[in-house]
Write a structure and sequence with these properties.
With 204 residues, the protein is mostly beta strands. It has two domains: 1-115, Ribonuclease Inhibitor (Leucine-rich repeat, LRR (right-handed beta-alpha superhelix)); 127-203, Alpha-Beta Horseshoe (Leucine-rich repeat, LRR (right-handed beta-alpha superhelix)), CATH 3.80.10.10. The protein is built from four helices and 14 strands. Keywords: Leucine-rich repeat, Membrane, Repeat, Signal, Transmembrane, Transmembrane helix.
Length: 204
């Protein structure tokens, strides 16, 4: 799966990570830069290649990393979308593709994972409405970062169903209408960032 990722990073490896460290022969996958394995089963649990200057696409083979808990692809120069095969990663708790170059439009609808608690999609070319069933599919969300996109429509009242939500960042989008009073039901909410939208008023 990781060799497939290496093969799909086609144009840029400014720190020579792929050519020197990510090798099938020189070292164990668990010793690759940006890769963490579980101590007991030695299966890949974390892929963190944030801010490594990578360019290319994300291969569907990443969906075979069945023990993956965290995937961070942020601040790179990828293109395309996350492959749908990632939706079968049932242990996944965190995804971050902020400013990665990836189009995250499919991410808000593709996952139905009760364990996911962190979703970072800032500057991810998101358009359209925020799905009203988001919290039913991702009921354990604690941190939701959707700033600097082109989301529109109203904030769905069902956002209050994300009862564990601590951070909700919706700044710099095109949301309209009123701010739903149901946000006041989020008892664990610590950060609410909704500036630079087109709201008409506040009903909190």
């Amino acid at each position: 799966s990781l060799l497939a990722l290496k093969a799909h990073v086609t144009y840029s490896d400014p720190y020579h990570i792929l050519s020197t460290n990510w090798s099938s022969s020189s070292t164990s996958v668990c010793n690759w830069i940006g890769i963490t394995c579980g101590s007991r089963h030695q299966r890949v649990t974390v892929v963190n290649i944030s801010d490594m200057g990578f360019t290319g696409t994300i291969p569907p083979q990443l969906g075979n990393l069945s023990f993956l808990i965290s995937l961070d692809l942020s601040y790179n120069n990828f293109h395309g979308e996350l492959p749908l095969e990632l939706s079968r990663l049932r242990k996944l708790r965190a995804i971050d593709i902020s400013s990665s170059g990836l189009n995250g439009s499919n991410v808000l609808s593709m996952f139905n994972i009760s364990s996911l608690d962190y979703l970072g999609l800032m500057d991810a070319s998101l358009t359209g409405d925020l799905p009203s069933d988001l919290c039913r599919r991702l009921p354990r969300l604690q941190k939701l970062f959707l700033s600097s996109n082109m989301l529109s429509g109203q904030i769905p009242r069902t956002i209050s169903e994300c009862s564990e939500l601590q951070v909700l960042a919706l700044m710099e989008n095109n949301f309209v209408g009123t701010i739903p009073g149901e946000l006041g039901n989020l008892q664990l909410l610590k950060v609410l960032d909704i500036g630079f939208n087109n709201f008409q008023g506040m009903r909190l």
